[in-house]
Amino acid sequence: MSAYQDAIQKLTQLRQQNGAAWAAINPESAARMQTQNRFHTGLDIARYTADIMRADMAAYDADTSAYTQSLGCWHGFIGQQKLISIKKHFGSTKKKYLYLSGWMIAALRSDFGPLPDQSMHEKTAVPALIEELYTFLKQADARELGGLFRELDDARDANNEQQAAAVQQKIDNFETHVVPIIADIDAGFGNEEATYLLAKKMIEAGACAIQIENQVSDEKQCGHQDGKVTVPHADFLAKINAVRYAFLELGVDNGIIVARTDSLGAGLTKQIAVTNEPGDLGDLYNSFLDGDVIKGADDIANGDVVVKANGKLLKPKRLASGLFQFKAGTGVDRVVLDCITSLQHGADLLWIETEKPHVGQIAEMVNRIREVVPNAKLVYNNSPSFNWTLNFRQQVFDTWQEAGKDVSAYARAKLMSEEYDATALAKEADDWIRTFQADAARDAGIFHHLITLPTYHTAALSTDNLAKEYFGDAGMLGYVEGVQRKEIRQNIACVKHQNMSGSDVGDDHKEYFSGDAALKAGGKDNTMNQF
After folding, report:
1. Nearest 10 degrees: Cα torsion 118, 121, 127, 130
2. 111 is in an annotated binding site
3. Distance between CA 160 and CA 152 in Å, rounded?
4. What pLDDT does residue 485 have?
5. Which structural domain range is residue 483 located in?
6. Is 258 helix (H, G, I), strand (E, B) or coil?
7. Is 420 in the same domain as 510?
8. pLDDT, position 223
9. What is the Cα–Cα distance from 24 to 294, expressed in whole angstroms?
10. Are both 105 and 235 inside the same structural domain?
11. Which residues of the chain are under the pLDDT cut of 70?
């Protein structure tokens, strides 16, 4: 017996137990509502999606072609349409996640208005967006299942048992739109207690994976901007522990922690690490500090700080801001130490923020990490902050040049120019971009590829195209030709926007509740019938 039929049977028994007072309750209608609302709480979602991610991580360990992907979404509707599209085009949501970007929350969801990615937005906006995303994904379930239930009723009314059985099978094998969310907690929005409190809210909203970075929370910068300041390992590990305790308190025992390091592009630290003995984590962190070796008190000026590192007295270079500098060229070594330390102290996945999308650069760091932690895996930001076209054309240029191939027809610094678009170099670069995710998953340990803020850009691009046409000579044709006609021909579900907003689901409920007296919106005069 299917879960749907089992629910009908149980509800039939329940109605019988309650006698005449429940006579108006239709067990199958109630079973349909239960089926359309599989997840009752965010914790149900977090536990379910954590299992999915853990299984996907194991699958990747066995076969690196089984990598996972996501797109960052700044609104529930965007996330919903993404998952509907994935199911339409690929038949399944497997290995497809959502990413919740702190950058997009700051830029688009703050009551303060648009903000830079510096943790200035309200921390409550983060769990609020997680909850919103899952509300829209659950509605996508209800909408699709509602359509199947109506198909089932039509088949039954036509006495078409074969069609009814086929629809019933679709109901029984229905795949939910609810998928894992990797959610950005920035640098924790405060101390470790603040991190724990926010992590709890995020998990309660449905997050099974939380990404946290090793920047100073009150100095946090976007990973692709200058001025990044990291914290000693002990501070970061305390926040990793805080997130793990939040997962455990809420019963999400297999929740995932993504530890992000910004050390590759961060040349500053706010504090000198506490160290108890040579070679401990604090001592290793301090060994990267830039400064001058001194011999005695005569080399110390008023207000100078001195530490003992590598057996010598070091006067670290301190800026007017009070921040300390790291030695130039130590970024890779600091990244490797950060990653190994995070994995050895509770993190499940790594995030290395880089300045360009280069498989070789990423692989160099991951291979060193895997010498200590063999199953180390990355979440990687396929960032819109990279100029992908220029980066990959220059990578191909450099590869050709090293191989002795003639590149005299190309000006390396100007490879973004349209004049190169039809060249062999540009075509090879595009092919490298196309295979970047598969190549990096195979060669650089990347388990999950995401784009942080793609829907920020797609919203701007599509709005620009519409505004240009609609307010220009095209007038209404700008909308019809550029939007609606494409929606119809590409079978975009939201062309029937009344249905997408829940009108048909509401009609179903009215009929359940009021029977023949229900006043429904989906009758013959509904203009959605034109589509």
Report:
1. -70
2. no
3. 10
4. 93
5. 472-519
6. strand
7. no
8. 46
9. 88
10. yes
11. 1, 217-227, 521-531
Question: Edge-to-edge strands of the sheet including 229-230?
Answer: 229-230, 268-269, 324-325
CA distance 284 to 309: 8
Helices (H), 407-471: 424-443, 454-470
Contact indicator for 375, 350 with CB cutoff of 8 Å: no
DSSP 181-192: EEEE-TT-SSSH
In a domain, 219, yes or no: yes
Q: How far apart are CA 194 and CA 169, in angstroms?
A: 47
Spacing of C-alpha 120 from chain mean position: 20
Q: At what angle do helices 331-344 and 233-249 cross, to 10 degrees?
A: 30
pLDDT of residue 523: 66
**Residue 203: per-residue pLDDT:** 98
In a domain, 317, yes or no: no
Residue 316: beta bridge partners? 291
Give the three-class secondary structure for 60: helix
Q: Using DSSP, state whether 447 is helix, strand or coil.
A: strand
Q: How many domains does the chain have?
A: 2
Query: Of 445, 265, 422, whose CA–CA distance to 373 is shortest?
Result: 445
Kindly report the pTM of this predicted structure: 0.93
Burial class (CB in 10 A: 0-12, 13-18, 19+), 528: middle
CB 28 within 8 A of CB 8: yes
Residues 197 and 243: their CA atoms lie apart, in Å, by 9
Question: Catalytic residue positions?
Answer: 222
Whether residue 365 is found in the same domain as residue 511: no
